[in-house]
Amino acid sequence: MPKKLLPSFLAACALLASVTVAAQTVTDIPLPDVTVNPKPAAAQATVQNTAEAANKLPTAEEIAAERARLERMRAALAAERAALEQYKADLVKRQQAAAAAAAKANAEADAKAAADAKAAGSAASIPPPPKDDPVSAKTLSPEELQRQRQLAIERAKAIEKAIATQKAADAKKAAAAQTTSPKDKDVAAMKLRKITQNKVRYVHLRDVAVNYGLTFAYTKKNNKVSGATIYDKTRKAVFSISGRDGTVNGVQVYFLYPMLIKNNEPYISEVDFLTCLDPLLRYKTPVKLGMKTIMIDAGHGGTDPGAVNGSHKEKVYTLQIAKRLQTQLEKLGFRVIMTRTGDTYPTLQDRAALCKKYKPDLYISIHCNSATSKTPAGIETYRAVPVGGTETKGSKVKTEKQSANEFDANSSRLAYEIQKGMIAATKGTDRGTRHQAIYVIGNAVCPAVLVEVGYLSNADEVKKIASPDYQNKIVSGILAGLAGYGSFLR
Predict the structure, then answer these.
(1) Burial 222-232 (b: 16+ CB within 10 A, else e)
(2) What is the pLDDT of residues 112-160, one digit of tens each?
(3) Which CATH number fits domain 187-281: 3.30.457.10, 1.20.120.340, 3.40.1350.10, 3.30.300.130?
């Protein structure tokens, strides 16, 4: 080796020896799986921190679980989006329904509905429908979905309110149209063909049907004409050729005369038309009457027991029913006047005098029926005989006018409604509304009826009449009848 290189070689050997010692020293230190890098201390610390961070990376299982959680969130957001779309579809249907309902109204109804809607703040307060949201379900926040759902709910409620307002306006219009309907026009304005037979005036039944907007048809039994029917969707009256019995809307009604066939054309008596049929076909009474004070007459009493079947006495049950009716009417706010409150006997004249003294709006007399046969059963409601008419079981024509005849039409409707109500409440046999010369109702100064709630002579029916439960049913039926009559009053 040249001498000039010797110093360099010795210096290199010394450096190698020092590195070997340093490496041996580091190797002797027990460090776990760490590669020694002869770098400065700051760099050494950075490497160590990076190694520790690497040791904290999630495992494959943790990554899979996180991915599944994210997928569930995405699915939930998609479901929320679908729910929002369904809300939008429902709103479109509601808007279409509202538009269809509004199209049916005429100009006057539209103006009225608009005014009502504006006053109620319904249509004006409907928020505009939300625009299509460009944000995808993946990025739409739950808060935004909730906000849009709330807006949809508020709009749906506003639309429902607007529809309800429109329906109310339509109903009001229909009611007004019904009030002025030609079906309820004045009888004097009707064009009716008339004939006279055996001193009784008759009107053409086909003409009656036309004036009330009803359809006429003959009824047949065993392929033979047995009567006639006039009807529409809500009203139906059936007349018999052989007798006075008929029905109106399914309720048994006894007319004053049988239907007459003349030259193959149907006729009913004019007095039947005016006092029996017309009041039952009308929607409203042509005369406005009150309905605040009601007089209840418990039949018989005191020395007059009425019908008797063993220990069962009519005077007892009529008073029990009258008191039950009084209680219910007073609860409803009516003023009630009783002809008797105990086991006393006001005469027929006394009862009529009480009616004239207090001038009630209605008079209801309560009785129980009886027959020599034990078979008859059922409920009947009587009203006074109109002038020119006959009793249901008589043929003598009434010629003298009584005070009650001023109210024949209303008494007819009252009897019909009460009979209808009692039959519905008790499920008893319908023996119909009838006419009879009864002193207390003939001399009443208001619409008046007498109800026969059942037959004490019938073994089954007398047990019912004695039952408080059945008496309550009778009272419920009378109350339902009064409600029906009240809706008939203007």
Answers:
(1) eeeeebbbbee
(2) 655 655 554 444 444 454 444 444 444 567 777 777 777 777 777 777 7
(3) 3.30.457.10
